[in-house]
Amino acid sequence: MNEPQKLRSYHLFLTFITFLGWMISAMDASLFFFIGPHLMEQFDFDLKIFGFIVGGGFLLAVIFSIFVGPLMDFWGRKLVFQWILVLVTMGTFLSGLAWSFSSLVIFRLIATGGAFAEYAVGATILMESVPKKHRGWLMGIMAAGWPAGTALAGVITIYSIPSLGWRSAFFIATIPAFIVIVIRLFVEEPEQFMKERKLRINSTNYHMKATLNELINSYIDKFKFAYNMLLTGKNLYNSILVWIYINSAVFAYSILIWFAPYWMSDAFGLNLTQTTYVTVLGSLISVLGYICCGWLGGQLGIRRASLIFISIGSLLIIWLNYASSDFSSFLKGFLLWNFFGAGIWGIIPRMFTERFPTRVRGTAASVNSASCWLGWAIVSSSSPFVLENFGYGIVIYASVIVFSPLALITTWIMTKD
Fold first, then answer.
1. Percentage of the chain with pLDDT > 70?
2. Which end of the chain is least crowded, N or C, by CB within 10 Å?
């Protein structure tokens, strides 16, 4: 199929909308990290329980993603794209109303479960809508919504909590979310999917006045078809490689994201506000890294971009471990790592969308990105234990010696730039 290569204003609009959606999802997740100490004091639980709550949210996101993918392939990208953000916004707002530990856990599970499904939906609708020639840097911008959301969450907590309390941060975060929900009404269904759905409707005698029972049965059939197709042949091969790659990247990346604030606090005596400032600054630099890596992936190919960013990121982790005798040296390495080590995520959305056919691309994107959330669930649940019993050293070595090289190897096998 010949794809149009001309960049239109709608492509930029859609890129901005997918960026904002992922930014809002990341903002919600990051708010919970920043507000964590206040919540632990308010509802009387410790860091280990906090880690289990975060891990539970990621596990729910994995389960949620299993069904969201076929929904995208059945109903369309736009409908799921809209309702995912509605669910996230509800969870964020309700988190601000939490009156007990149990209610907090329930509302956080709702928010987190929806938030991380946004990643696959946004990547799928953007990948199918923009010209291939410009896909690298545009999808890099979309992925950069994560560090942008983290930075915004940090700013909200710094300026709202001291004067208005921790609940205000959740309420303030819902304001941009409601605005984006309205703007997303103007998003169009991708032409690739519309052509595929037309063929499917013609071949199955699908009718618009189907009963609820018929719709449910149709979805079940689509669910079975999508997973049968995804778990056979080349699709299965690519899925396994994507799972290995993403989990390797997750462990290498999340190790520093999880440990850096505690590292700064324990090693250099920084307080919560100071570590939040540093995290915000690092996240802003990550935005540039995501976009640069996405653009470079479009110019040099995913293989070479991955090699450059992962290699430099690994060297920076070694620098942090051996050369950061004072906070000044740590800060330089940490900020550079946010560009290279975190920037690798600028090409990841292409890896779990481009290699799969339109018919099951939504399912493939959701399932393969779910591996990301499974990795985060493991890291979030186990990090407090590792931190308490083994310290930072062992996870730093694991990142450089095991996870980063594994990500490079699978990238080289999977891609042929």
1. 87
2. N
